[in-house]
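Revision sheet: structure tokens.
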Amino acid sequence: MKSALVTGVSSGIGAAIALELLAAGYRVTGLSRRQPEVPEAHSTSFQWVQADLGDLETLEELARELDVPRVFVHAAGFMQTGALGELEARNLAGMLAVHVQAPAVLLNVLAPKMEKGARVVLIGSRTMSGVAGKSQYSATKSALSGLSRSWAIELAERSITCNVVAPGPTDTPMMVDPRRAGVPPQVPPLGALVDPKDVAALVGFLVGEKGKSITGQVLTVCGGASLRG
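Predicted:
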């Protein structure tokens, strides 16, 4: 059975990705602070490991204990907002740890052992190009593009792909998180928030057989939000 490691599986996009991969026949290990709800039909193929993705020292120790997956998806994340004059350094440090350093810590241990043809997907954000009031969040998410392209180059000789999927405003608990109260979500031009299942489906394609020729790319799923500039 194919194996996958997915971070941030307790809710939102991470949970949708875990379910997508379980339905596709993967054995999934999920990392998150809170235990997710997994349908009984998939319970035997899912293993939850409690982890704080911001605790980098403990995360590195955990990485050495994990089985090496064929598919790695980093979906863990959170948003804290603020305009210039309101920014707090600790917010940037926290998001940087979870969004950027956590996948680097995990893959630094796991990637050298991953098999030929393995897959890596990082969940970015449509805001990677910059949005007022989200500078710190945008900075951490935009860093994933540099990580992904660099890793794609390093891993290409083993036919391992590495890409970023960048969702726009998505129908997840993050949309009502008090930490983003200063910048409420805007409904995209297509008339609805992005469905997490649509993001998960794209991830499923990238990690599948027909995704083998795509690497080092940022793929945006935004409901047309990027058309607004």
